[in-house]
Amino acid sequence: MDDGLNLLNIILLAIAVGVFLKLRSVLGRRTGHERPPYDPYSGDASGNDKVVTLPKRPRAEGEAGARTVDAQGDPFADTSRRDRWHGIAEPGTPLANGLDAIAATDAYFDADAFLSGARSAYEMIVTAFAEGDRETLKPLLSADVYKSFEGAMDERDNKGLTVDQSFIGIEKAVLDAAALEGTRARLTVSFRSTLTSCTKNDDGVVVEGDPVTVREVTDLWTFERDVKNRDPNWKLVATGASG
Fold this sequence. Notes:
elongated, 27% strand, alpha+beta, single chain
């Protein structure tokens, strides 16, 4: 009787080990179709690859420009407090004070990363406007700015005009102003870019501009974001000429 029980136990143990090994071989195998891990700073929770996220992941501690947090939650309580906007704003200026106010409300704010994203947004918006690409423009602009852009594109379409533009690049992009009004952060950027551009009629005849002459363009654009909103995207809320 005991020998029978021992034999049965051995058989059951062998079956259990076999099942375990089989499960491990299946569960541990990568097929290449797994979903990538979610990155909360990836910038596009909606799946719309035409949305440019301006703020980026904050620098890791120890990297240049990294910020520490004290016991009271101040992300700038380190020895470099007086020069935390080095290369962007002089200490004590209205621009630096505005950046301080934004950073005090949004611990993840990074001015360098914002400027990098703003450059991408600028080129995307300028190009989309020239091409009449409303789908790209809409998520990047506030309702008022989009309405203004759409009106100009509609008028162009009604006249049978098209824009032939070649965006060469951004020579300079600097922060001009920063402010926090309630929970709404506003950052104004001065852009200097170069491009070629002309407007053609239905017959392909140039009616304005020059398709080969490189022009320098200066713009003053203001971006806005509600820092209490989980949406990390900034939107263009005002445009103007830079002096």
